[in-house]
Specification:
The protein is mainly alpha-helical. The chain folds into two domains: about 10-70, Orthogonal Bundle (Arc Repressor Mutant, subunit A); about 90-123, no CATH class. It contains six helices and two strands; from the N terminus they run H-H-H-E-E-H-H-H. It has helices at about 10-20, 25-30, 40-50, 70-85, 90-100, 105-120; strands at about 55-60, 65-70. Strands 1-2 form a two-stranded antiparallel sheet. A hairpin with a 2-residue loop joins strand 1 (about 55-60) and strand 2. Helix 1 packs across helix 3 (about 40-50) and helix 2 (about 25-30) crosses helix 3.
Length: about 120
């Protein structure tokens, strides 16, 4: 399945669907912070997500229960790959270097990254 780029509103809906592991439009609206969008607005965004093959639904009478077709991890990987290729020449080290230089990555976080790398080498 090809993952498609999502708008901010579509990502917000996907975050809710991942958290709820699916739901009806009313369930999605209940999770959105104030000011809440109109029912039709959320319904339209969800239908767009269905068209993008990111979400599917099961019918329950006249309503539909929507569920994600991709995991949050799959979409996160897609976003990170795009970020790295678009801004850091596909290099993880370039990305880490950028955050270190901008002082947005402290020593503890850098140590945590190194531990994760070491643990993955062993497995």
């Amino acid at each position: 399945m090809e993952i498609k780029e999502l708008t901010k509103a579509e990502e917000e809906i996907m975050q809710i669907l991942w958290e709820l592991d699916g739901g009806f439009v009313k369930d999605i609206i209940a999770e959105i912070s104030e000011p809440k969008p109109a029912y039709n607005t959320v319904s339209t965004i969800v239908r767009i997500l269905v068209q993008k093959e990111m979400v599917d639904h099961t019918s329950h009478g006249k309503s539909h229960r929507y569920h994600p077709l991709i995991t949050k991890e799959e979409y996160s990987k897609y976003k990170m790959d795009n970020l790295m290729s678009g801004y850091f020449e596909g290099s993880f080290s370039n990305m880490v270097s950028f955050f270190v230089k901008k002082k947005q990555l402290n020593t503890k976080e850098l140590d945590d990254i190194l531990k994760i790398i070491e643990n993955n080498k062993e497995s």
